[in-house]
Amino acid sequence: ESVLTQSPGTLSLSPGERATLSCRASQSVSSSYLAWYQQKPGQAPRLLIYSASSRATGIPDRFSGSGSGTDFTLTISRLESEDFAVYYCQQYDSSLPTFGQGTKVEIK
Amino acid sequence: EVQLVESGGGLVQPGGSLRLSCAASGFTFSSYWMIWVRQAPGKGLEWVANINQDGSEQYCVDSVKGRFTISRDNAKNSLYLQMNSLRAEDTAVYYCARASGSSKRLAKDWGQGTLVTVSS
Lengths: 108, 120
Hints:
The structure holds 2 protein chains of 2 kinds. Chain A contains no helices and 10 strands. Chain A is mostly beta strands. Helices cover about 0% and strands about 55% of the residues of chain A. Chain B is an all-beta fold. In chain B, strands 2, 4, 5, 6, 9, 10 and 11 form a 7-stranded mixed sheet that branches. In chain B, strands 1-3-8-7 form a 4-stranded antiparallel sheet, with no helix packed on it. At the A-B interface, strand 5 and strand 9 of A face strand 5 and strand 10 of B.
């Protein structure tokens, strides 16, 4: 089972700032089968990024993903008020997909 | 518009059973893998199970093997999760999701979830 570790646990930033979220896998994720989801309180998760760097339909271009192997990054170029939420990474390479524990992006 | 609506959650005693349903609309249900993901209160996401288009392949996480069964009825555009021998640690919001067209393990569209509480 591939364990995903996200850092930091909480990111305190102001609107307009840049957010950089990290996801590290215990095993290499082949073909970059790595996704990022956003979840707001009381809501279902929403797919943001798949294949490590491809934006899902309707996702603004301030969201970008990068990385390969075991190290992946989600970047939000300029935070807007609606971006404050919890973000999860997920590997869907293995037969048992796993999620990271989440990074909360909160207003400073 | 893709719509996924879960139902069937509620309070159940340890050792009891519950059947969750997910009604799908807005897409050709029989063409997609479908997925269940759960989230314990205040915790992160956990993959539960997925099923292929005709129901002939199912995969589930070890912690629910032998207790949970994923199934589907394409004529009714519905996905199910039969949960038996429920434990306190199964308490969670259960989400139904449609897999992407290119990966059976990528949850592209999600329902709003249904809460299952296992408690005496």
